Amino acid sequence: MNFLWNWMAGFRRHSRIVAITDxxxxxxxxxxxxxxxxxxxTMSLAESYGYIRARAASEIxxxxxxxxxADKTLRAVDRARIVQRATxxxxxxxxxxxxxxxxxxxxxxxx
Length: 111
Hints:
The chain is mainly α. The chain has one domain (about 1-95). The protein has 3 helices and no strands. Helix 1 runs parallel beside helix 3 (about 75-100). It is elongated, with a radius of gyration of 18 Å.
């Protein structure tokens, strides 16, 4: 019976983490897009990936801190898991949006 109780508690915690991650991603995407849409469109895929991760980090941390303030039972390990999952989802979604956006040409400056 103890096994079942522990399994149910883990399932509820996982469901809560997924829900918070969804909220963090939804609230972070517009701000991240605003930060990366101009420069990210001129970069290669690998450059864009790193650029988006770097620009998204502060926004995602801010949203996770807001969510953690609302849910006092959120453990540090859960917060780290949410940051990791939200970052990957925001990066993937933003990269997909950049690929759909019209390509801008990189301007080269003379030396």
